[in-house]
Amino acid sequence: MERATERTASGTTTDGDGPALELLVHGVGGSTPERMLDDPRTIRITGDDTAAVFRRIDDVDAESRPEEYRDRPVPEAYVWCHLTSGSGSRALWLLLLPFMVVNLAHWMRPTTRNRRRTVRFYGLLVRLTGLTLTVLLVAAACEVALDLTAWQCAGARACAEEHTWLGFLSPTVSDHGWWSPPGRRLALAALGPTALTALLWYLSHRTWSEYESQRPMDRGARFVEDTERVALGRPGFWYGRRLVARLRAAHAAAAFLTVAAAVATPAARHDRQPGGPPLLDLLGWLLNSALMALAAVVLWVVCRRGRTENRLDKELDEHLVRRLPTGSVALLLLALVYAGWSRPGWKSAGRLPGELTFGGIALAQVVLVVALGVVAHVLYRSHPDSDPESRTAMRGLAGPAVAMLACALGGVMSAGVAQRVADWLGGTGDPLPGPPVLLTWQASVIPPMLLVLLFLIGWLAKRTWTVRGDEMGLVEHEYRLAGGPDTSGRLSGERRGKAHSDRRGKPHGEPEPRDAARTRRIASARAMAALTDRAPRVIGVISAVTLLLGATALIGALATKKTPAEAAEGTYAFVAGAADTSQALGSWLIGVGFLLFVTWGRRAYKDASARRTIGILWDVGTFWPRAAHPFAPPCYAERAVPDLTWRMATWTGETGGRLVLSGHSQGSVLAAAAAWQLTPSVRGRVALLTYGSPLERLYGRWFPAHFGPAALASLHGEVACWRNLYRRTDPIGGPVRLSRADGPKVDADPFQDPLAYGRTAEHPLPAPILGHSDYQADPAFAREREQLLARLGPEVPGPRRSGPAAESAP
């Protein structure tokens, strides 16, 4: 063990006897520096209004008074909540939920070794799935604006008279006004999907300039090999500026091309009819050829390049980023002019040719998800879990399952909006043809899906009831209640050990009186917290049923060319009734769900609690960089991880002191990611204190390639020391399941929650069940932190290797 010696920027050398720093990182939902530092007088020492580091006013010049901090660290608070939940406008990001979900699927690949091409193919399939979601969303907007509104409703006299705001587009109501020809109606209606695409492009560009453009610390080439084993430690992992710009250009171009095709295809189909003008027919052929050529370029751009992690990629494809969207916009303008050309005798009837579009998108998504499942299975089988403690979700199929849910969300949102608009516009005596039958089929499978969800809820309720009954006996045994059963003989060795460890420090005396209601509340909290571990099974069932129902809807729509109610006519009465009920109920449920969706978003502008709830959703879902979809909500970690890395590296470089990185909940994930980004010399000075941490329970199971047992073991072997705290009533945090033969284990004994069963001298009022919050309220927290500081000590060991575990890290 070498003496920790560092040279400061001024040239003086420190021997490591200076003050220690405790850098606090809060979790989901956010916090304030005053609450984190337990002092109303705080000051920002570095950072901006979005994310910053704070200290108490009394500790601002702590480095100049090291003698006052011999027995305690200098606390600092890193506040990052404004990266996700600081603005009410971010409630509208709920509309981008399918994009966020498909982006998560990219990071859920199984752990593997020596399968780089297969890993690249996995990423390619996810990127293509994300591209289909963009085309689907814009195609749905075109269906509503062009087909249902401008083509069907404005072309029908009864619908146009019912909705007077469409009167100027109707050839019968406006007496053949300038906008009444079908092509001009389509060109005008195309402004809606075009504006939607421009909005998505603008939001992606703005967040890209704020998040992805935050450059991480450049550690130099000699440290690349040290961190290459763990993906989160690679130099370019948190710098996706080039890829997001490239994908943004491709997706924006694909969206503009979708609008252009929706406008130009009906006009070209009319011009190909016998007797059509030859010049317009030629122009239509040339325009469609140009659209197909540029679409092929977009597909090549998406397939050509994935993430660059092994180096800090500072370049940018300026020519591609600028020219690809510009070319697609130019083709869109040509399509608008082409469609708006005068065509005497052209009348709108029936539906626009959208059946093949939505059917092709749905078929492509099914094929991509199935292929993704095959590739994920190959990756999982190439490197099965060698550690029996590993609990990879769904045996490596979590990524394909989540990708399937993203496609289902996109399909439900598209079908639901189209069906509701069709019902609203067609509420006249002359019904409209309505949306493509595939969208009606997709809306009709919602009631069966809800029945499956109700079954799963019932199963979870039953399991929770059973677990609560088991926990009641364990609670009575742990708190030594009078009249409680002696369950120690019926408990497994592990649970019996937990029962004894949870009573640590409890004085032996007379048993406490038994309170059935209190026991039920504690047991219910533990049972509800255990539901988190059943999420893989629930997601797997939902994904499988979604795939089955989606395939059924696709086959039914393509085979019958009719809606479910029309296809069931002439069959058994109960079949026809069920089909009609499912179709009507699905449309109604989507309408109600969409209204609730919008209402919740509007409420977030005025209600801080609602805004905080939505912020928590994004805190969990947007940790990962945008690798599959550029229109997903931005990755806050691309700002937070470099912030933490820069702060730790510069402070230890200037002072040569010790540092405790203390993270709660999602803050522990940010802390681990930042620790991986440090150089070995700095990493050896850092101690980790995590509490309420989802590192193994959630991230290790769902993202095994990045937080699996090998990766966490590597981190354990390279930081100075690590201690993890958790409760059994915590639905998010849990043990990290790491230990070393030459040192104390990482996981502490689970904290007792509540601290007291009944009223005691230390707790004269009933102690609350804290669950995931207020870990510092437990006296054991202070003891664990003191022991961690004592282990860190003034003499800091150099970086260690974790032996075989480090060599097996991905």
Task: Describe the protein.
The chain is mostly helical and 810 residues long. The chain has a domain at 19-79 and 636-807: Rossmann fold, CATH 3.40.50. Helices cover 55% and strands 5% of the residues. A 7-stranded mixed β-sheet has the order 4-5-6-3-7-8-9, sandwiched between helices. It has a two-stranded antiparallel sheet with strand order 1-2. It is globular and about 95 Å long. InterPro entries: AB_hydrolase_fold. This is Integral membrane protein.
Which residues sit in consecutive blocks of at least 5 with pLDDT less than 50?
A: 1-16, 487-508, 796-810
How many strand elements? 9
Structural class: mainly alpha
What is the count of DSSP helices, taking H or I runs of 4+ residues? 28
Q: Order of strands in the sheet with the most strands? A: 4-5-6-3-7-8-9
First and last CA, distance: 29 Å
The CATH class of the domain at 19-79 and 636-807, by name, is: Alpha Beta
Calculate Rg over CA atoms. 30 Å
Shape estimate: globular
Major sheet details: 7 strands, mixed
The third-level CATH topology of the domain at 19-79 and 636-807 is Rossmann fold
Helix fraction, binned, reads 55-70%
The overall average pLDDT, rounded, is 82
CATH architecture grouping of the domain at 19-79 and 636-807: 3-Layer(aba) Sandwich
Proportion of beta-strand residues: 5-15%
